[in-house]
Each structure stands twice: as structure tokens, then as C-alpha cells.
Amino acid sequence: MRHGVKGRKLGRTASHRAATLNGLATSLLQHKKIKTTLAKAKELRTFVEPLITKAKKDSVHTRRLIAEKVNDRKVVSELFSEIVAKIGERPGGYTRIVKLGQRKGDAAQMAIIELVDYSGIVKPKASKKKAEEVKPAETQEVKAEEKKEKKEKTAKKAAAPKPKKEKSPKEKITKEKVTKTTKTPQKKGS
Predict the structure, then answer these.
(1) How many domains does the chain have?
(2) Is 98 part of a structural domain of the chain?
(3) pLDDT tens across 43-72, in order?
(4) How far apart are CA 97 and CA 113, in angstroms?
């Protein structure tokens, strides 16, 4: 029976598990949204939410307690100044887990864990197509010209016949010796 057995081991030793959760917590508080496995996300939720609750009471003691778990000083100061101010009087439930499906390589269940109050603020990365549209037309023309020049150079190299190397007299002699010294195998007992 599993009475009172709490938490997930995540296939790690206790120290490795603690380091993993510290790193995940730091990343979540820094980026406001991270992608990880479902098991890690569920375990991270039980790790981060008490930290945020402690941060509501701003004192030297709570800062030191949280600094033990969060690996980055800037993230700790951001937690006390920005994140707690944004959360306000929310009574728990600071994170949201969204299931994504299975990972291709090992079929592990993937999920996104995010801070609830920051769900709309996180900026998505600009796609490459949009970044190219923003560039002025002149730079695109210059790149097109460079591509044409490269194609012309490769076409010239392919069209030019390669000169054949003449073998040195030493190589000729060694080949002749090899052909003279080889004998045809004879049958035994004849």
C-alpha cells in the first residue's frame, strides 16, 4: 500500500531531483512559461507554488529561504518586486499546466507550465518569414545577387575539366613490381 507516499522520484537521486526542481523553478519564474514533461510539470507545481506564497511576505528571512531554492539573484528580486505584485491577493493556484501530447522520440507526455497571471504577456518568438518581411527590399536584392554569383562560380568549377595527374616514376615502378611478384595459386598434391 502507498499510504503517505508523496511526490515523484523522476528517475533521479534525491540531490539530483532537488537540483532539477531548483533549475525548473528558476526557469519558470524567469521566463513565466516553460515546456517540460508532464510528470516534471506536476512536481514543479508543488515546488513553486509554496515559494510564491512565501514571497508574499517580503522579509529578509523569506528572501533567504527562496534564494536557497532559486538559482538566480535577479529572478529572486523579480519574484519579490514584479511577480508578487501581479499576483496580488490570489489565494494559490499560481500555475497552469497545459498538456501537449507525446514527444516524438520516447513518447513521453509533454506539457507547458506557466504562471497564470502572465499567460497573455509572454511574447511568442517571431517567425522567420515575418522577420524577412520586415527587412528592407534592398538587403533582399543584395542577397539575391550574392546567390547568383555563388551559382555562377560553382557552374564554372563544374564545367572546367580537371587536369589528370601524371604518376611519378616511383609509383609506376612499384605497380610493375606488384604485378610481377604475384603468383597464381597452385593446387596441392598435383
Answers:
(1) 1
(2) yes
(3) 999 999 999 999 999 999 999 999 999 999
(4) 4
- For residues 116 and 164, what is the distance between their CA atoms, to the nearest angstrom? 70
Q: Which amino acid is at 178?
A: V
Range of the domain at 57: 14-118
Report yes or no on 93 lying in a domain: yes
- Structure pTM? 0.63
Query: Is 190 a member of any domain?
Result: no
Predicted pLDDT at 89: 85
Task: Kindly indicate the confidence band of residue 15, based on its pLDDT and cuts at 50, 70 and 90.
Answer: very high
CATH number, domain containing residue 28 = 3.90.1030.10
**Which of 45, 70, 44, 66 minimizes the C-alpha distance to 57?**
66
Q: Cα–chain-centroid distance for residue 53?
A: 30
Q: How far apart are CA 131 and CA 34, in angstroms?
A: 24
